[in-house]
Sequence to fold (228 residues):
Amino acid sequence: GAGVSQSPRYKVAKRGQDVALRCDPISGHVSLFWYQQALGQGPEFLTYFQNEAQLDKSGLPSDRFFAERPEGSVSTLKIQRTQQEDSAVYLCASSLGIAGGDTQYFGPGTRLTVL
Amino acid sequence: DAKTTQPPSMDCAEGRAANLPCNHSTISGNEYVYWYRQIHSQGPQYIIHGLKNNETNEMASLIITEDRKSSTLILPHATLRDTAVYYCIVWGRYGGSNYKLTFGKGTLLTVNP
Fold:
C-alpha cells in the first residue's frame, strides 16, 4: 500500500524566504510526527500530532517554525524567514495508534537548502 | 540522549551474514528495542523490533540477550542494497512522551561485492 509521502523532495530557498513542506501520512494513521535531520546526524524530534491536535511541539527550534494538521490527515510544516541553519532534511512519520504506541513509518523527507 | 551504543561502521561481504551489535545497558523493563535503517537520500525504514524474545521477519532477525542489555541485528544474506546506516533505538512505546524516537548516529554498514 501507499506509504508516507512528502513534497517537495527538494527545496532551495533564499535566506529570509518562507517555505511550506507537506506530508501525506498513511491513510487512517492517527499519529503524525515531524523530525529534522542535519547532515551526518540522526533524525531529531520536532513535533507530534494526534489527529488534528498538536500535542507536543517541544522540538521546534524557534517560533519561526509552525506545523499544522487541520483535518487530521495532511500536515504542513512551515518555516518563516528561513536561515542557513534551517538547512536540513525534514522527515515526516506516521503511526496507526495514539501516543506513539505503534511503529512509526517514515516518508522520504524534504531536503531544504537555504542559501 | 540516545540510550544505545553502536559501532560507527562495519563492512560485510555480499552474500554473507551481517551481524550488527547494539548495547543498551540501561534499558527499562517496558522498553522495546527497535531497528531502523536509512539508505542514502531516503527516510528511515523500519526493520524489526522486540521486547525480550528473539524476533524474525522477512528482512532480518533480532537477537536480544537474556539480560536485555544488548542485541544483534542479523541480515542473513547481505546484498549491495543493504548498504545503509542502521539505527538501534530503545523505545518505551507507551506512556508519557515516549512517542519520540531518539536516534543516535547508528552504524554505517557497507556491503562489498
In short: Chain A has a mean pLDDT of 94. DSSP finds no helices and eleven strands in chain A. Chain A touches chain B at residues 4, 6, 31, 33, 35, 40-45, 48, 56, 58-59, 91, 93, 95, 99-109, 111 (CB under 8 Å). The radius of gyration of chain A is 13 Å.
